[in-house]
Amino acid sequence: MKWLDWAKDKADWIDPLTEKEDGLLGKSVSLFEQILQEQK
């Protein structure tokens, strides 16, 4: 089911705990990466 894979990919991209790259949305930034950037 292609739509199910598509929906899972979008959900993973929205998830703040994962880092995911999407062809349309670009690269997401995980919560952990944001914390590391703020500490610098």
Task: Provide a descriptive summary of the structure in words.
By secondary structure, this protein is mostly helical. It has one domain. 55% of the residues lie in helices and 10% in strands. It is elongated and about 45 Å long. It starts with a helix and ends with a helix. The model has no long low-confidence stretch (mean pLDDT 89).
Listing every helix as H and every strand as E from the N terminus to the C terminus, the arrangement reads HEEH
Distance from first to last alpha carbon: 43 Å
Main beta sheet strand tally, sense and closure: 2 strands, antiparallel
Count of individual beta strands: 2
What spatial order of strands do you see in the largest sheet?
Answer: 1-2
Number of domains: 1
Low-confidence stretches: none
Alpha-beta content class = mainly alpha
Q: Helix count?
A: 2
Global outline = elongated
Mean pLDDT: 89
Computed Rg: 12 Å
Strand content is 5-15%
Can you give the helix content as a percent range? 55-70%
Key terms for this structure?
single chain, elongated, 2 helices, two-stranded antiparallel sheet, mainly alpha, 40 residues
Secondary structure: elements and pairs:
Layout (H helix, E strand, L loop, with lengths): L1 H13 L6 E2 L3 E2 L3 H9 L1
Antiparallel strand pairs: 1-2
